[in-house]
Amino acid sequence: MKELALAGLLALGTVAVAKAETHHIALHVNQNDAQVMNMALNNVVNLTNYYKDHGDDVVVEVVAYGPGLVMYIPGKSPVADRIATMSLEMENLSFSACGNTYAKMSAKAGHDIALLDEAKIVPSGVVRLIELQERGFSYIRP
Q1: Residues sharing a CB contact under 8 Å with residue 133, sequence separation 6 or more, in sequence order
Q2: What's the CATH code of the domain at 106?
Q3: DSSP string, 58-97
Q4: Is residue 11 included in any domain, yes or no?
Q5: 80-134 per-position pLDDT tens digit
Q6: pTM, to two decimals
Q7: Number of domains making up the chain
Q8: What's the domain range around 129?
Q9: What is the three-class DSSP state of 33?
Q10: What is the Cβ-side half-sphere exposure of residue 38, based on CA atoms within 13 angstroms?
Q11: Is there a domain that residue 97 lies in?
Q12: Is residue 74 part of a domain?
């Protein structure tokens, strides 16, 4: 009986020392809509806090393309200040800008358009979302 009780305590100890998980999330923004952009950033904050409170880690990438690329254009982005603040506070967060959309917007403007420093250009926003999902990222579209 003593051995059974000891085995039970050891099993409980194993459960209590469960390894933290790392969750990978891809958020998609393709609308030039301040409400959608803010919802995406709210999602980032909420899911980061949720997983942190549960002892897990989370990696988040926000991918913008089409009209959603305005999210990353200085002077036009309704969320530029939030992006700057969140980037400083959250090491788990990155922002990707669609290279196809960037090229079309730049051609229309007649010069390379500026992007927020936090945004990195990827060849294609759609392809980036596919790549992230193939690597196990969960897909969220606010």
Answers
A1: 26, 139
A2: 3.40.1260.10
A3: EEEEEEE-GGGGGGGSTTT-TTHHHHHHHHHH-TTEEEEE
A4: no
A5: 999 999 999 999 999 999 999 999 999 999 999 999 999 999 999 999 999 999 9
A6: 0.86
A7: 1
A8: 21-140
A9: coil
A10: 5
A11: yes
A12: yes
